[in-house]
Design brief:
Blueprint lengths: L10 H7 L6 H4 L1 H4 L22 H18 L7 E7 L6 E2 L13 E6 H14 L11 H8 L5 E2 L12 E5 L9 E3 L7 E2 L3 E6 L4 E9 L3 H8 L10 E5 H5 L1 E4 L3 E4 H4 L16 E15 L1 H8 L8 E5 L9 H8 L15 H7 L6
Parallel strand pairs: 9-13, 13-14
Antiparallel strand pairs: 1-2, 1-3, 4-5, 5-8, 6-7, 6-10, 8-9, 10-13, 11-12
Length: 358
């Protein structure tokens, strides 16, 4: 027998309409939507009552009620449905469909009243925010996710020779322009990838891993054309200012980028201007294209990637630290192409010690 309609008394709705609590999403977004909780309703510690004796508080309460009552009138009682509720992402996102993406946290099946979903939308209405659709990310949302990937890493892509670190070059965190890719000698037609990680062998040679967010198939075709190795060679261009800028390194606090390479780059000469550029040949290139989930499944069933290309759906970008996604990303490292990891020769070690250009 199907369940009968239930009257939903959301703690959030009661708190706002009768106790005049502050919005929990304003009080503490992180604790309110913690993945360890199965309900997005706030608790009283997160939403302290606003005292009636405060004239300012009364004005705020009245303004809140004027916003709530027109919306509350449209809420209807709804039967309880059993559905998949995503407990990852910036806020609790309910999804009655399939959860896409490799290695994402396992969703929980809960008895979730439909009216509670209205509460989530109601909370976001007050903030003027919108739910992030992990199945189809905008360019800005994708870059925000890529900024959560490490600044310095030897785990995502094992370094050649076993020493040194990959550095994130794009997207940038501050106001210092990051490195760009181009054909040798090009000044105008350059490529600034959505995501770029660089492993420096020295100031003349580097390996790069590119992550490109693609919103449409046409966008994918355009970005693929930039990296076809048969058409041209590729160089990386970066400034002295970028090398000198500090980043948060693993277990070492803020250090300059040249030092964060793990000894691969030497300190630039103090007389060298910040605007002076370095140009290094790209030895090893791998590109990860991220597609909207629906386009991803359609495209992959009809195409064969070339050796340097990798593909993932949008919903997988946020799961880089899962075991499944990390195993996938490690395939992009140059070390994955060798059955037995080669030992670092003395000659190669000496090559790493080429002094920086003046």
């Amino acid at each position: 027998m199907p369940p009968s309609p239930a009257i939903t008394c959301s703690p959030y709705r009661i708190g706002i309409r009768w106790d005049f609590q502050r919005l929990a999403c304003i009080t503490d977004v992180k604790s309110m939507f913690s993945v360890s909780r199965s309900c997005v309703a706030p608790i009283r510690m997160e939403c302290p009552l606003i005292p009636w004796r405060s004239s300012v508080a009364i004005l705020i309460c009245l303004a809140t009620l004027l916003r709530i009552f027109p919306t509350a009138a449209g809420l209807k009682r709804a039967p309880i449905r059993s559905g998949i509720v995503r407990t990852f992402g910036p806020i609790g996102v309910a999804d009655m469909g399939d959860v896409g993406g490799a290695g994402l946290a396992a969703p929980h099946t809960l008895d979730w009243p439909e009216a509670e979903l209205y509460d989530v939308a109601l909370q976001n209405e007050f903030l003027g925010a919108s739910l992030m659709d992990m199945n189809k990310l905008t360019d800005g949302e994708a870059k925000d996710i890529l900024r959560t990937w490490p600044n310095q890493s030897s785990d995502l892509w094992p370094p050649p020779g076993g020493t040194g670190f990959w550095l994130r070059a794009q997207p940038t965190d501050g106001d210092v322009a990051g490195p760009t890719l181009s054909s040798p000698g090009a000044k105008f037609f350059i490529t600034q990838p959505d995501g770029l990680w660089v492993f420096f062998l020295d100031y003349r040679t580097c390996d790069v891993v590119v992550v490109e967010h693609c919103g449409t198939i046409q966008n994918l075709n355009d970005k693929r054309s930039r990296y076809i190795p048969a058409s041209h060679s590729t160089v990386l261009t970066w400034t002295t200012k970028w090398v000198r800028a500090t980043i948060k390194a693993k277990g070492r606090g803020q250090i300059p980028r040249w030092k964060a390479t793990g000894g691969k780059l030497k300190k630039p000469n103090s007389s060298r201007k910040d605007s002076a550029e370095y140009v290094g040949a790209v030895r090893h290139l791998r590109v990860l294209y991220s597609l909207p989930n629906t386009d991803y499944h359609k495209w992959c069933s009809e195409h064969t990637p070339t050796g340097y290309e990798y593909f993932c759906p949008h919903s997988s970008l946020g799961s880089y630290n899962s075991q499944k996604m990390q195993a996938f990303l490690r395939q992009m490292s140059i070390t994955s192409q060798f059955y037995i990891k080669p030992k670092q020769s003395r000659g190669r070690a000496d090559a790493f010690s080429i002094p920086s250009p003046s």
